[in-house]
Specification:
Strand content: 5-15%
Number of helices: 11
Radius of gyration: 24 Å
Structural class: alpha+beta
CATH class of the largest domain: Alpha Beta
CATH topology of the largest domain: YojJ-like (1
CATH architecture of the largest domain: 3-Layer(aba) Sandwich
Shape: elongated
Helix content: 40-55%
Strand order of the largest sheet: 2-4-3-1-5-6-7-8
Distance between the termini: 53 Å
Order of helices and strands: HHHHHHEHEHEEHEEEHHE
Largest sheet: 8 strands, mixed
Oligomer: single chain
């Protein structure tokens, strides 16, 4: 095995290395572009199906199956641009703007983001202004971003309070924060279907639980009736947080190296605050 590897390395030229690198970058760019879209599961399914068919055809030669594989591949070359048309268009727009890759927020930017959201949440809670702020993490929320009004704005307490002011058009819905910026406002979130024992929990809390059930997002809710702040994660709602607990909890949930189990979070941040679990 080692001899074969040395022989292969000796035969590689700079053109071969460049060729392999370009192919790898192309596939990486494709999957990066599809990440966070509804097309990603479809792309995985197509890739898995082609891989299984290729392996079967390689191990066992079946004449009819090989003919079927040969007929499917040309059809996929025509179908893929049609199926992934929105994603391809978005990718080409990103290339034209020079925004192929965007880095995640730095620790300093994350601190500023959490501080801005915390300040806005506390001020809105004092004024009994309802709000729903969703933080995108690894699971993409693009399909929900597209239901709202695109903004791509810096996160500031003043802007958040303006968005959720009952006198504005954008107040009814969720704000989605993506990569440290407000991606969109007035976004429609899925509602949880789980039974909630507390009937005082309204649509914002149900939407917060719904989006955290379907993704790994973190949702912050400001109750209009009670003037309290709650945070939803992984289908659980940590309710009625004290002011001093909001920022540390957001840091814990949004900072991957500090991520902990839900039980640890409940013991550290919730008690003696109330918690609501969707079952």
């Amino acid at each position: 095995m080692m001899v074969d590897l040395v022989w292969l390395v000796q035969r590689l030229t700079w053109m071969d290395v460049l060729d392999i690198t370009l192919v790898a970058l192309t596939f990486f760019w494709i999957f990066y572009t599809l990440q966070g879209t509804r097309a990603m599961p479809l792309a995985r399914g197509i890739a898995a199906l082609l891989l299984v068919m290729a392996v079967i055809n390689r191990l066992i030669y079946l004449r009819a199956f090989s003919w079927l594989l040969q007929q499917i591949l040309p059809a996929l070359l025509v179908a893929i641009p049609v199926v992934f048309q929105p994603e391809l268009r978005r990718a080409l727009e990103q290339i034209g703007r020079g925004q192929i890759f965007r880095l995640m927020a730095s620790p300093q930017e994350l601190d500023q983001l959490i501080q801005a959201v915390t300040n806005a949440a506390l001020q809105m809670a004092q004024r009994h202004i309802g709000a729903l702020i969703v933080f995108e993490r690894n699971s993409g929320l693009r399909e929900y971003i597209e239901t709202g009004v695109a903004m791509e704005s810096q996160v500031t307490p003043e802007l958040l309070m303006t968005i959720f002011n009952p006198g504005t058009i954008l107040h009814d819905g969720a704000v989605i924060i993506r990569q440290g910026r407000i991606a969109a406002a007035a976004c429609v979130m899925p509602l949880t279907t789980a039974y909630l024992s507390d009937r005082q929990l309204g649509l914002r809390h149900r939407a917060a639980l719904g989006i955290t059930e379907e993704s790994d997002a973190v949702a912050l809710v400001v109750s209009e009736e009670r003037g309290s702040v709650s945070i939803a994660h992984n289908g659980h709602l940590i309710r009625d947080l004290e002011a001093a607990r909001i920022a540390p909890l957001l840091h814990t949930l949004l900072n991957p190296p500090e991520a902990r189990s839900l039980g640890t979070l409940m013991r550290r941040f919730v008690l003696p605050a109330k918690s609501e679990r969707s079952v």
